[in-house]
């Protein structure tokens, strides 16, 4: 785990090892009691293709599965 602080202008510097591993661009996600940095791929479309290369379900099947999971979580 690394530690960093904001400078006088409110900028945050990430350690070099983290930048080399995850890149230079991030989405900042504000959670209830923390924040999360989510790396943005240099080529987001290519990254999505790689992420879902092994998925053999159709979009409709994935959507239906997600809907059922959401209903189960909601207790219906």
- H/I helix tally: 3
| Gap between N and C termini | 40 Å
> Assembly state here?
single chain
User: What is the residue-mean pLDDT, rounded to a whole number?
Assistant: 90
How many structurally independent domains?
1
Low-confidence stretches: none
Strand residues, percent: 5-15%
* Rg from Cα: 18 Å
Main structural class = alpha+beta
Descriptive report:
It is a single chain. This protein is of the alpha+beta class and about 80 residues long. It has one domain (about 15-75). The chain has three helices and two strands, in the order αββαα. The protein has helices at about 15-20, 45-50, 60-75; strands at about 25-30, 35-40. The protein has a two-stranded antiparallel sheet with strand order 1-2. β1 and β2 (about 35-40) form a beta hairpin. The longest helix has 16 residues, at about 60-75. It starts with 15 loop residues before the first helix and ends with a helix. The mean pLDDT is about 90. This is AbrB/MazE/SpoVT family DNA-binding domain-containing protein.
Give the key terms:
76 residues; alpha+beta; two-stranded antiparallel sheet; 2 strands; 13% strand; flat
Blueprint (SSEs and pairs):
Elements: H1 16-22, E1 26-30, E2 35-39, H2 44-51, H3 59-74
Antiparallel strand pairs: 1-2
GO molecular function, one term: DNA binding
InterPro entries: SpoVT-AbrB_dom (IPR007159), SpoVT-AbrB_sf (IPR037914)
Domain SpoVT-AbrB: 4-45
What's this entry about, in short?
The protein is an alpha+beta fold and 76 residues long.
